[in-house]
Amino acid sequence: MRCPYCGGSDTQVKDSRPSEDGAAIRRRRVCPDCAGRFTTFERVQLRELVVLKRSGKRVPFERDKLQRSIGVALRKRAVDPERIERLVSGITRQLESGGEAEITSEAIGELVMEGLKGLDDVAYVRFASVYKNFREAKDFEDLLGTLAEAGVEPPESVAAGKPRTARSRS
Question: Which of 32, 85, 126, 166 has minimal CB crowding within 10 Å?
């Protein structure tokens, strides 16, 4: 493992421990050249996945990109980081064990929406608005209607059509 500070190729592992409910190994490393310390994570990868984008372009699947997009939807929401990590790991495992090496971006988006619906309804609406490319308020109304049919209560300010105030922003 190369040192991210000086580029040295001979880093030493100082501590290893299970992480993410045993799905990964967290390693603390130190560089003997510059004394820089950093952390790496080792995860099982069942297969190399390729994402087929809407444009037809094929790109390698990036777990970090999935985690970032879920993180954006959950920004400023009171959700335990461990639950977020479990969601990302669960989606990744589901994709890797699905049998297909090529996955459409739509399939990934649907899995994320399904996971967010059970985790946080506001994050679900945020993600859906970008993923489904909402263009007008009617799109939000339709989505909130599907949430209501599924038995999920939309957030009070959204359901009542109230504008956000400075006090309601967190």
Answer: 166
